[in-house]
Specification:
- The protein is α/β, with parallel strands linked by helices.
- The protein has 2 domains: about 5-130 and about 285-305, 3-Layer(aba) Sandwich (Rossmann fold); about 135-280, Aspartate/ornithine carbamoyltransferase (Rossmann fold).
- It has helices at about 10-30, 55-65, 85-95, 110-115, 135-145, 165-175, 205-210, 235-240, 245, 270-275, 280-300, 300-305, and strands spanning about 45-50, 70-75, 100-105, 120-125, 155-160, 180-185, 200, 215, 255.
- Helix 5 (about 135-145) crosses helix 6 (about 165-175).
- The longest helix has 20 residues, at about 280-300.
- Bound molecules: phosphoric acid mono(formamide)ester.
- Phosphoric acid mono(formamide)ester binds near residues 126 and 261.
- Catalyzes the condensation of carbamoyl phosphate and aspartate to form carbamoyl aspartate and inorganic phosphate, the committed step in the de novo pyrimidine nucleotide biosynthesis pathway.
- Its EC number is 2.1.3.2.
Length: about 300
């Protein structure tokens, strides 16, 4: 493919290739000289029209470790803030002949919109509520490294599913890799049509995490909720926040994940975030290796096809 828009366009063979490549790049990350010339001469524009710490930085680190030139553009410092359209901004960036644009934007479908209009690769770094494929890949990669395979494991995704692109991409990828996915949220924070998804649905945290091998906590995406319909944070934390008490009924050695940013004391108890069960920082480290793999595979696809 020219572009990475969501996980559903990747076959299981594609996912295996990405994971195998990420493993080979993990070795570079662990060496004292963390740079190889693999992508010298390639350029990547990191176009983040919505806030990001992990995704943007890890794409930047990934590109630089492979010797690609990376350039950052944010919404507030760009001419988007002067009314320029996404299309005109993208065509302007394309005229600078990058090999890839990594896009984060608040509109669902924004990555596809650009991918259909640009010659360079477009990598979706999160589009609205729709998809966050590189997050799902790094989550599945992290769990695969822990367990050898996610097949047959039970993964509970807990929190604001309705507004979560992370949940949507993870449900697709984890279920196709053979995991059982349980979603746990208040009814108001489950998406329309969720009953057709290949998941179990729960509204009680204790039941949802029973015998689970991993629990992925998601934050409340208050920025995507209407004013006046915001949940009471204290009540939400009491009812849907993950606490050590819940994990007593989970599988032994249950793993706790969070894509970040975390709101400690709301969707996750602070001690759990720092506990031996937590894979939160492993996810960040995996993110660099997975994004190195993706940049390598997408930026060298023409050479590989020859
Ligand atoms: N997980 C994630 O997308 O984090 P950022 O918003 O910090 O990139």
């Amino acid at each position: 493919h020219k572009d990475l828009l969501d996980t559903d366009q990747l076959s299981l063979a594609d996912v295996k290739r990405i994971f195998d490549t990420a493993v080979s790049f993990q070795e570079i990350n662990e060496r004292p000289v963390k740079k190889v010339p693999t992508l010298r001469g390639k350029s990547v524009i990191l176009f983040f029209a919505e806030a990001s710490t992990r995704t943007k930085t890890s794409f930047d680190v990934a590109g630089k470790r492979l010797s690609a030139d990376t350039f950052s553009l944010a919404s507030s410092g760009s001419s988007l803030s002067k009314g320029e359209s996404l299309k005109d901004t993208a065509l302007t960036l394309q005229a600078m002949a990058p090999d890839a644009i990594v896009l984060r934007h608040r509109y669902s479908g924004s990555s596809r919109f650009l991918a259909e209009r640009l010659e360079c690769s477009v990598i979706n770094a999160g589009d609205g509520w729709h998809a966050h494929p590189t997050q799902a890949l790094l989550d599945a990669f992290t769990l695969t490294q822990e367990w050898g395979s996610v097949a047959g494991k039970a993964v509970c995704i807990l929190g604001d599913i309705a507004h979560s692109r992370v949940a949507r991409s993870n449900v697709d990828l984890l279920t196709r890799l053979g995991a059982t996915v349980r979603l746990c949220a208040p009814k108001t924070l489950l998406p329309m049509g969720v009953s057709t998804w290949p998941v179990e649905i729960h509204h009680n945290v204790t039941e949802a995490v029973r015998d689970a091998n991993a629990v992925m906590c998601l934050r409340l995406q208050l920025e995507r909720m209407q004013a006046g319909l915001l949940p009471d944070l204290r009540e939400y934390a009491r009812t849907f926040g993950l606490s050590p008490r819940h994990l007593e009924r989970a599988a032994p050695n249950v793993r706790v994940l969070h894509p970040g940013p975390m709101n400690r004391g709301v969707e996750i108890d602070s001690t759990l975030a720092d506990s031996m069960n937590s894979l939160v920082l492993d996810q960040v480290a995996s993110g660099v290796a997975v994004r190195m793999a993706l940049l390598f595979l997408y930026l060298t696809r023409k050479e590989a096809a020859q």
